Amino acid sequence: MVESAVDLHGLPVDPDVEPEDRVPPLRLADLARSLCRVVVQRWDVLALISAGGALGSLARWGTSAAWPGTDARSVLATLQVNVLGAGLIGLLMVLVRRRGIEGRYARPFLGVGVLGGYTTFSTYALDVHGLLLDHRVGWAGAYLVSTVVLGLLAAWAGVVLGRALLGLAGRTVRDAG
Description:
globular
């Protein structure tokens, strides 16, 4: 009988993994040091992400509150928020990359902060769970799939729109010159 390899914790290791491929165990002290280093070195970016996240979360709350009071309110509001957010993220990434406004703050504030705070995967997962608990399996499946498909289509549409806007802006600048 061949003995299987074991890592530092006594857990089985794939025999195809070479010793130099193994990752040392993560220790809480190392994680805390890394986090402190990031906070000290990038406090300005973290502050902008926090401010953007607060704004995005407020916008999400406002969107949810604006939906008419129906049983489907939460699901439809979350679907709208996530699809719109995906489209805006697609648009933002084109504008940030192609217009040279990458900088240190544009993506963290707008992408991670505002749009990250606006969109919500956790509510989406809870909505699916709630539909399943209510024995609405068909609705849960439709919501599960439609959110992903519509989100991908919205992100693609945002990219296309961003490219079109930049193309129009480029022609306008060339025509004026």
